[in-house]
Backbone:
């Protein structure tokens, strides 16, 4: 260190990018071009507006076998949903809009892939006016007497 006899050393640096800038696609691409380590992680179910999450049964679904499986909506219920939609002149999308669900939910119920949810089934019953749960599946929904 005999060659450098400075008393003080001045280091000029740029400020690093802000958090919002560091997360942009352009900043990530630039960092990758420079050869820097870039770590990305996706948060599970982040930024989604899901109202009907199946949280306690997810591990059971992962281990699903023929002996251990979740009950699905019976095909006869799916056929009644299709019939009821046809009678009312509704598409899957129209019915989904009326019950505040995605059209894929209706498609899953109709083809028997969905795990029955009483809230969703109740909404579909009210819109179509058909009973989809219990003993009298497919019969018209009786109007309950109003409480006085």
Residues:
């Amino acid at each position: 260190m005999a060659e450098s006899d400075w008393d003080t050393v001045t280091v000029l640096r740029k400020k690093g990018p802000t958090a919002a800038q560091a997360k942009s696609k352009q900043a990530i691409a630039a960092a990758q071009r420079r050869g820097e380590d870039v770590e990305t992680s996706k948060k599970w179910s982040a930024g989604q507006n899901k109202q009907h999450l199946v949280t306690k049964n997810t591990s059971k679904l992962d281990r699903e076998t023929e002996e251990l499986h979740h009950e699905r909506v019976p095909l006869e219920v799916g056929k009644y949903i299709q019939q009821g939609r046809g009678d009312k002149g509704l598409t899957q999308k129209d019915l989904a809009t009326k019950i505040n669900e995605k059209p894929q939910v209706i498609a899953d119920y109709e083809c028997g892939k969905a795990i029955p949810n009483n809230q969703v089934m109740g909404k579909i019953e009210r819109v179509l006016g058909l009973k989809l749960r219990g003993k009298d599946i497919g019969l018209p929904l009786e109007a309950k007497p109003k409480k006085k």
